From TrEMBL:
<dbReference type="InterPro" id="IPR009875">
    <property type="entry name" value="PilZ_domain"/>
</dbReference>
<dbReference type="GO" id="GO:0035438">
    <property type="term" value="F:cyclic-di-GMP binding"/>
</dbReference>
<protein>
    <submittedName>
        <fullName>PilZ domain-containing protein</fullName>
    </submittedName>
</protein>
<feature type="domain" description="PilZ">
    <location>
        <begin position="2"/>
        <end position="119"/>
    </location>
</feature>
<dbReference type="Pfam" id="PF07238">
    <property type="entry name" value="PilZ"/>
</dbReference>
Amino acid sequence: MEKRVYPRVAANFSAVIANEDGIKLKVMAMDASSEGLCVECNTIERNLVTPGGNFVRDGKPVELFVWLDLPDENGGTAKIEARCHVAFSRRIANDRCKIGMRYLNLEKKAYEKLIRFIEYAMASND
């Protein structure tokens, strides 16, 4: 049973991720929650933003910057940005991966936009 106040919602939306070295990729976010999100990419892209596909660097989780275009209830998008750390990197097919991230730094206004998106997505799924 889901124990989160705001559960993870499955939704495809555009995202840009960048690592600390400045490598940026446009990816597809697969789901989001108030605590983090998961994106899908190919293995080459994963290896570009995480060192050789590893999500730990120098004994710490790899940090990524994320820019999200969250669909809103008016047919537009709510743009937010966050600093995250990689929680997992998992291969889902021969050349496809999922990268799970947890928010480290999310401004209050961005968090409010994220909660509105989650509530909207949950209401749309009812």
